[in-house]
Write a sequence for this structure.
């Protein structure tokens, strides 16, 4: 355990950065709720959390500039600040820093956090903000205690689009907090530009804390979002069991955000209702999705050495995506905007599939390795002309990375 | 057995008319090839065959105006004629009239018929024509022998669109021929306007002959097209077994002919190839389709007495159609034109599903009983603006009807 943070009087300010990726579901959404396998993968769009801990003066809480915990959300242009004394007053008895032992946020703790949020000016329209701030305060206080510090968050990920932005926030923040707290070792594997991947045990600790944060934001998350964000690559998920997949050959995809909001709970409920009206047919549908996810899991682990092998692998991937899309339509979760994306990409012989809840949200399009850049440009231009937002991503890449300045 | 035709010298000309409906597949196409159940239904678009047998003069074959067998295809504007002597010369030994005993067309008979077609001027572009003419000659000579007569055929049905036009041709022609030959009784069930439905044994005889005609046109037909055309209503079809369904409450549908031609054999082969690449997933898909067809079979037999019951029945039908469409997309047989129809009808909250082979062809749209005419007009206009052809039909109605003048 790194003793740095423990001897604050002898050190200067501590700066830590962490970045964690978003995720897409490659196959299995919705059916996964009914016991089928699903496959999620990291995408190279990141949420960045940085933490600056100023050294505490000789007397904690006193001295020039009594400490505060600040949060700067760069993308929204919003900042929040809680004096440490206020934090201690509200949370002191409820939360003590214990970074090595992740535990859920209790109802009392949550109530205490809610009181702290009342101080702040939270714009009416941003309901998600309260949940995110609660998760932040919980993680901060649970890992670092009431020490003064400033956190800055920015992200490449659109929010509420099903790309795992809240998990990326929880993972990057947990990673930064645990690194700052000295609860995880850094320095051993510094890569290019100083970013490094933590070792397995450390990642598991981060993941557990991030999951607790996710629970505050989402209620009953599956855990797959934060796991993919922490560990990267691809993960197969079935009935609560996660399996890390050794994916070879980076897969390029286009993610199209239709910007059509949807009610995930309602979509999930709709599928369940259809299943109760047609139990046999839907059981077969879920079974087919399971087969597709299992096949996809095998295919991504194949190493493809030459162009022919790569193309063959991508053809199989594309066919599985197309089949999954048909099954999602059978479940009733498609949407006219999704169909517009499908129709547009089809004109360029590209295969697409909704990802996540459906009813709007994001659509994945496989970009074959051998496809021309001009094709990608044209299809992107056409999609953007509908008001959609496109991201070109690499799928199955890195998970959490930290940087200690 | 009606002795009319047997004593030609004592009677005037015999005029017979028959009309047989086309069909749609409500659910189960493609999957039916792999053992799943499918449901087909008659539609109120008819092929009309009329037959005029002139009385043979005292000496057959001689006298003013040597006799011939003529065929007038009204919709194509083509007429064909074979002198009876020519027929007798080519087929005499091969075919003798035996209307009560349907038998397949043998290779020798087919060769003889092919020689007869060489006389005629068959436009290059009309490949289907040869098959249809062969079926006509086979049925005519097998049922009526080489008696002079004139057949006129016209139809409401587009050809090659998957709506059973060739079966409707074979059924109406067989019905007319058998009635003219006196092989089936008429007169007992005369309905309004003189059209009547033959009794069950007679219909079976017609159906067997029509099936032999279909075999000449299609090679290995399933038999469902001619059965639906003969018997009407709806028929469930599974692994070669046909079950007549007592469908209640006429269902209104819009049929949109995208006019996109497609290669049915290629589409069927494509599904089989996908099944060989993904046996598990596709087996589940076929299983789901089977369940959908079985459910639909039950639903159509329910009697709905009031508006609420009718709406409830139609909602179930619509949901099954939507689910089947998703599964067909999973099989890979949809097409951009089909998707355009789906997208258009979706704007009016109407549910649609491709019918038949896919890859173009026709699309079904359920028109709820309580929907307004304005909606139907608007959606029809919008579909026609794409160059599609729309037919408003009633599904599950009458089969073959004959009329003896």
């Amino acid at each position: 355990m790194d003793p740095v943070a423990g001897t604050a009087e002898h050190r200067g300010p501590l700066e830590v950065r962490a970045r964690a990726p978003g995720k897409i579901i490659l196959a299995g959404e919705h059916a996964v709720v009914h016991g089928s396998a699903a496959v999620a993968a990291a995408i190279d769009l990141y949420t960045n959390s940085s933490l600056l801990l100023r050294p505490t003066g000789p007397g904690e809480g006193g001295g020039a500039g009594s400490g505060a915990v600040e949060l700067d959300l760069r993308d929204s242009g919003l900042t929040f600040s809680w004096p440490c004394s206020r934090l201690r007053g509200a949370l002191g008895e409820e939360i003590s820093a214990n970074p090595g032992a992740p535990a859920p946020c209790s109802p009392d703790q949550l109530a205490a956090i809610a009181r702290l949020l009342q101080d702040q000016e939270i714009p009416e329209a941003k309901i998600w903000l309260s949940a995110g701030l609660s998760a932040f305060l919980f993680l901060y206080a649970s890992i670092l205690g009431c020490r003064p510090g400033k956190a800055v968050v920015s992200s490449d990920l659109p929010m509420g689009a099903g790309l795992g932005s809240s998990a990326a926030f929880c993972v990057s923040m947990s990673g930064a907090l645990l690194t700052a707290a000295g609860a995880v070792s850094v320095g051993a594997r510094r890569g290019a530009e100083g970013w490094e991947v933590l070792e397995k045990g450390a990642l598991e600790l981060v993941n557990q804390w991030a999951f607790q944060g996710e629970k505050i934001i989402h209620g009953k998350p599956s855990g797959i979002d934060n796991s993919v964000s922490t560990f990267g690559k691809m993960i197969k998920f079935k009935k609560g069991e996660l399996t890390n997949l050794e994916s070879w050959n980076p897969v390029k995809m286009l993610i199209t955000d239709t910007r059509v909001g949807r009610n995930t709970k309602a979509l999930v409920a709709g599928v369940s209702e259809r299943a109760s009206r047609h139990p046999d047919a839907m059981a077969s549908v879920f079974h087919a999705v399971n087969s597709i996810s299992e096949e996809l899991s095998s295919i991504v682990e194949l190493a493809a050495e030459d162009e022919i092998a790569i193309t063959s692998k991508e053809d199989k991937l594309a066919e599985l995506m197309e089949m999954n899309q048909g099954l999602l339509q059978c479940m009733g979760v498609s949407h006219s905007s999704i169909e517009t994306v499908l129709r547009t990409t089809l004109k360029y012989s590209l295969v697409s599939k909704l990802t996540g809840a459906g009813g709007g949200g994001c659509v994945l399009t496989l970009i074959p390795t051998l496809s021309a850049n001009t094709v990608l440009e044209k299809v992107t231009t056409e999609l953007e002309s509908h008001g959609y937002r496109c991201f070109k991503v690499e799928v199955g890449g890195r998970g959490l990375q930290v940087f200690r300045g």
